[in-house]
Amino acid sequence: MESLNLPTFAYKVKHVNGKPHIFDIIRRKFVSLTPEEWVRQHFIHLLITEYGYPKSLFAVETGLQYNTLAKRTDIMVLSGESLPFLLVECKAPFITVNDATFAQISRYNFTLQPQYLAVTNGMAHYCFKAVNGQIHFMDDFPKYREFNN
Q: How many other C-beta atoms lie within 10 A of the C-beta of residue 146?
């Protein structure tokens, strides 16, 4: 896997039927190591180590219903009240974060209504709030202690 614009971490990889799998500390199991999963695991570790989010507040690849379509969120961090706080859409490093990426997470926002949304491809990262249909980009991701007081 390629280097990302995210801090490295001590990851565990094993091969299952000749294919690499990485250990997911949230789901507590080895999952197929795809380029998107590589980004997801790095971003999970970033939020835990750099921003202080407890592992217990994470939900990974959680299902949701949007109109009649079944969708999956990449990373959702819950507030202390078990409400969606931060929703993260992860893309593979070779996928450009563009209007379609923002449209995708906006659809999830319509259903889940988290306080913050983020998109990343491991190289570029964006965090924003959607308030009354307006997008407000943030300079950084919120730290856990900022919403846990």
A: 10
Element containing residue 120 per DSSP (H, E)? strand 116-120
pLDDT given for residue 10 in this prediction: 94
Comparing 59-63, 72-76, 118-122, the range with the smallest average pLDDT is 59-63
Per the rule left: phi > 0, alpha: psi between -120 and 50, beta: everything else, 18 is: left
Cα-only R_g, the chain:
15
Separation CA 136–CA 127 (nearest Å)? 9
What is the C-alpha separation between 140 and 34, in angstroms, rounded? 26
Residue 14's CB: how many other CB atoms inside 10 A?
A: 11
Looking at residue 7, what DSSP letter applies? -
Amino acid at 40: R
pTM to 2 decimals?
A: 0.87
Instruction: Tell whether the model's pLDDT for residue 146 goes beyond 70.
Output: no
SS3 of 149, please? coil
Q: Tell me the per-residue pLDDT of 10-45, one tens digit each, with 9 for 90 and over.
A: 999 999 999 999 999 999 999 999 999 999 999 999
Residue 56 DSSP symbol: G
